[in-house]
Structures are given as structure tokens and as C-alpha cells.
Design a protein that fits this description.
This protein is mainly α. The chain has helices at 11-35, 43-68, 72-96.
Length: 97
């Protein structure tokens, strides 16, 4: 017996799926940061979880552009600055704590 063909995925469904993945990743990273680096100040974990998730998304976008080879120079500059500022900010926060 043949299975009926699947309906195409609508743009709204795709966006909702990506949104769910983004927020799951953000919450997972915030939890990991909360139980490891920021035990004394767990309120910092959400802030850095957001930043890391955003930079992971940009990194994934950059890797896609790497295959496409368009506008990668600007994204690369933003990524290097973003990751550098994030590491610097965590280092400063960890030394203050």
C-alpha cells in the first residue's frame, strides 16, 4: 500500500521549527553555564547563554555562506569581533567574581 505524499512545509512551520531549536539551544547553554561557570551568579548565565546562542547562529550562517561564498568577509569580521568580545566579557566577569 502506497503512502500518501507529504505536504510541503510552509514558511511558518519552518520558522517555528528554527525558533524552537534556537530557544532549546539557548536554554541548554544557559543551564550548562549556570551549573559550571556561574555557580555563584546564575543570573549571568542567561545573558551569556543568549550571546553564545546568537554567535552560534551567526557561525552556522557563516558556514552556509562559506559554501555559497557571498558576503563572507563582513560576517567573518562580525564573528571574530563577537567571539572576541564574548570571551573578553566572560574573562572580565570571572575575574571580578
Amino acid at each position: 500500500m502506497a503512502t500518501p505524499p507529504m505536504a510541503p512545509i510552509s514558511p511558518e512551520q519552518l520558522i517555528n521549527f528554527l525558533y524552537a531549536i534556537y530557544y532549546f539551544l539557548r536554554d541548554a547553554l544557559a543551564f550548562l553555564l549556570e551549573v559550571t561557570l556561574f555557580k555563584e551568579h546564575p543570573e549571568y548565565a542567561a545573558t551569556y547563554g543568549d550571546a553564545i546562542t546568537f554567535l552560534i547562529s551567526l557561525t552556522a550562517f557563516y558556514l552556509i555562506l562559506e559554501f555559497i561564498s557571498s558576503a563572507k568577509k563582513w560576517v567573518k569580521i562580525i564573528l571574530v569581533l563577537g567571539w572576541g568580545l564574548l570571551v573578553l566579557s566572560i574573562a572580565i566577569s570571572a575575574s571580578i567574581i
